[in-house]
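User: Assemble these into one structure.

Assistant: Restating your components, then the assembled model:
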Amino acid sequence: MALKVTEEQLDLPGVPAGLVARPLREHRAGPEGELVPVKTRSRLAKLERVELAPAEEAAGPAALDPGEERWILDAGERRWPAIATRYGDSAMDRAAELARAGVVRLRCRVDDRLAVALPPTGWVLSDEWQARRVDTQQVRDLEREQWRQRALAAAARVESACQPLAEALKGTPGGSPVLPVLVYAAEDLADGVAHAGPRAFSQAHFGHHQGTG
Amino acid sequence: MLDLGTDAALDQEPIAATGIVGQRQLICVQTFDIARLTSHPVALIPGSFVAVGGQGPRGDSNESGKTSFLAATSLLLGDPEWKMNGGGPAATASLLFEPETAGVSAHTYAPSRQGYVIGVFADPREPQATAMTVWCRINATAEYFQVRYADGVHLVRGDSDLERHAAADAGWAAMPSATQLGARNYAERLYGDSPRCLAYVAERGKQKSAPSLLQMNAGGFTPEQIGDDLIRLTGRASAFENEAQQRQRLDESQRTLTDTQRSHERISRDEDDQLSGVHARNASRRHLAEAEWVWHLHFARGLLDVLERERDLSAQRDEANEDLAVHADAVAETKREIEQLSVPDELQRRLDDAQDEVDRLAREQTIAAERNTEARHSAVQARERMTALEQTADGYSGPASNEVRARLQGAEQERDDARELVGLSRGRCQDAVQRVKAAEAGTEGPAGELTSLLTAAGVAAAPLMDVEIGSDAREDWEPRLALFESAVVIAPGAMTLALTVAEAVPGAVLIEGEDGELPAGVESAPAGAAGFLRRLAEQTSTEVMPERARHVALGVTVVGGFIDPLTGHAVRLDRARAALAEAERDVEEAQSALRLAGLAVEAAAGELRRAEASEELVGAREALPEADREAAGASRAVAELAEPIRAANQRLTDAAADVRGYENQLAAARERLEAREAKHTDAAKRAKEAQRALDSLKVDFWRQGWGDSVEAAKAALAEEPRTEKRLRNKAAELFGDSLAALNITSDGDGAPTEELRQVAERRSQVFDDPEPGRATITLAQVARPLRDFLDAHHDQDLVVEERIARARGQREEELGVAEDECGRLDQALQTLQDAVEQRIRHALIAISDEYDRLNRESGWFGADLHIEARRPEGPQDRWRWLVTPRWRRSDGGRLLPYDNQANTAQKKLATVQLVLAALLAAPNPRGRVLVLDELGDSLGISHRREVLREISATALAKGVTVLGTCQDSVLADASGFCGEIVYFEYPSHAEALNRPTRMFAFDDNRQRVELTGDDLRDGRPWL
């Protein structure tokens, strides 16, 4: 079974301003893998869950700081406890803003009075942001792979001079924030570059930052 | 878009469903000026069955005040049956203390103008932290009902009832006014959208309760009402509101769409009208442009044609002039030949003489032929006459004709006599027939005629001679009656009228009728004749030798001896028939004599003819030879004329042939002359016509019309096979189409302007075959007003077309949006209706399952709810849920509906089970209060205990508080099941108020007990 949002727009009580509710219906895999709606015994359409999203186009780009954007893009969907943990008392307002901005679609249940129950049960990224998440992931994977290759090359260069450093370069995962430090250190060692201290090393390789950025 | 997981949050219930009070439970009630109730707080053990009993002045529980307490409590809890959206608010005033209702003197106690019902609610898990108090203020006048609430316990304290009453108003004032609610919204705001309280009480104040789930007896509560109540219990009624709003929106959207469509159609019609004008002008422009081009081509074709024609005509003219000269010479020669021919006089005289001789001989021949014919005819006639006479005479050798003629005259006389005799016999026979008919009708003779006359006038009468006389009395009676053969007997009493009738019959004999016995010898007689007959017998004597009758008084003697009977109807009829037979025989004999006389006449006549023919034949035989001789002479005279005539004819023929030869020569010469003159004339005519045609070619006209070189004309017509006339006709047709596109008829009707009307009228001047001498007019000249008209509209038409196309596109877009909106709303409505039905049906099925379970646990055989949903169709319609509780009366039996025949206890138990099932299946049951009045009514001990057990179990299972009033007999049973007994006591009508309400219970929730403990002890020093 899978949940799939339909194109219907419902005017239900409780929907935050600027958003509309679209039913989420259970679908099952058809004979050729396609999704077909699951019929109830009574042939009545179920209305238990809805997604809240802008009616047509998003209100405008969301104002996101890089950290929040990274957190959002880290997961294609998030449950409400995680969202509430991040945003605290303003979770509902922020979630509605993100939905209006077209970043996420809020998933809610519909109560017995056919009102949208808030807070939502969670959210899923919008299609646009889901695509952005995939792109970001690919860039990160590519960067990791590049660091891995660079680390292996540096390890070969310092293997005779500093065996522990070479082992560390080989054993550190590509996504680790430690790996660039090791790579720069190994390359400096192989090239005979010396820095006045850790701060100078950091200034030389990371500018104002201390990490992969 | 996909989510393979489930949501833990699904189990969370929205706060709004249970209102501000939420799932807190009612733990204490305090009333002020409510009926006879005191202001002592009454603690309730929530989530249990609370038995409410009491004792009134008569020793039983009646008038103890328990119903008033329950009504006040139901009001506090927003019982929907108070109908606070209708007349409920005013009805709440009936809860206030009213001395006459309380049974005390109104002089001693004043009626209350206002009162309070105060409830304390708390969550059992944290009573202290969650306690809140609700105050309901009831006024005797508007505004009847107000509510305030606040966190914490806000009961009115005081050592005495008086003190507490004094502090009540201050207590109300101390409640935050910002929380004040009105009658219409307090229940929903405090308790949410499902009823917090279900009260099945006989009355609320003075307001009688309508049939309800617990009082469905006799089908008074319909399946639809049951459905409504159960749905309200489930708290899902508000789902209908969303659906109804959606329906309303859909209806509005559809109406908007319809309006838009109608507007679109109306505007489109207007635009079509405009476009039809534009299209007409465009079509007119196309046709006119084509007409102008074809018209131009017709000049080219005309130019080429006239140039070619000019060449041909010149050649024809020259040839005709040459022929003219040749034929003029021939004519002159022929005229000379004719002058040389002349008729000779001798030839003419010979011809005339021959003709005269022929004429004369012809006349003589005619006369001779006529004579010959007459002579031969006379001879033939003489021979024929002789033959006829011989045939008629036939060898006659009898007497001379004079003698035979005399005999014929004698035979004819005899025949005439016989014919006369036949006529006389027939006359007599007809008279006899008439007499038989009269005898048959009884109207024969004078007596019969008179009788007939009288009868027709309405007088009963009969001929006297109808009397029947015995055969042996004839000799006496016939002489007596002979004098009265014409007499008529008048019925008794009718003589006066009879005389009036007989006045016109002179000689009528009337006998006045008199009934009586008939005299001897008379066998029968007409009515009334008896008296006359008796007197006749008395006044006459009969004698014999000869037989006679003597009228003594008159001295008259009548001789008898009649051969046939004289009287009686049958006798007279027989006599008439015999006479008729004799007359008929006479007729036959006369006719036979007539036939014989006729034969004799014929024989005499034949003999006379033969005699006369024989005598004439002699003369005829002597005249025949003379006639033959005359015929022969005439024939010879004719024959003698044959040769002279032949000779004269030959001479005439010869002379005529000579004349015809001369005339033939002359005629031939004249024919030649005529032929040559005709050729000359024809040549002259051809020359003249060719010249005239050349003169009428108007080459300059075509050249100017074309306005270009001959080579250009040939080039333009390279692919154009049509003639000048067809091109001109085509141009005319196109020009007509151009006008017709503007609905302008050929006579100018429909033209928008006078100029265009004139264009139509002048159209024929352009295209008709040009008449000689008439100035040729061009298409451009005639069509100029039309061209000007079309040019003047050209830009405007472009603008109109573009504007309409743009507007239509815009409207189609708007219509599409509206249709999409309708489709979206319709789809959404379908989804909502499905969801509504699914939720309601699910809730009702849950109740049905609980209902079945309770029923079976009671030792019965199963129950269910038969559910039928009917969706609303229009925006103003409502959902109809027909819910029919059914249960089996026996194991394996059929599920029978609630309104089927059943004993009262079964029905009561079944209805209680239904309410309990609804509570068991309802969401958020905790905190609800069920008020059941007269709980044990109509139940035996077994059923009563069963009900009490189920109520108690349900209360414990769902945290529902059940307040059930119990009569004394029930209270003892209830004590075994209940969690608390609340006891009201009104000892005497001498008292205005009850005694403080007593409570018997154990509450293991210490915090809850302590929450209101001090308040309960106030005024109850024994606690």
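The radius of gyration of chain B is 74 Å.
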